[in-house]
Amino acid sequence: MLRGYHHKQDDSSQHTPGCVYPGRLRPEIGRTGRLTTMLFEKFEYMAQFQAELDAQDVVPFGAVTEKILSATEAVVNGRKVILAGTNNYLGLSFDPRCISAAQEAAGKWGTGTTGSRLANGTFLEHQALESELAAFHGVNHAIIFTTGMVRFTGVVKSHPLPHHTAAV
Question: Alpha-carbon dihedral of residues 43, 47, 53, 57, nearest 10 degrees?
Answer without folding.
Answer: 140
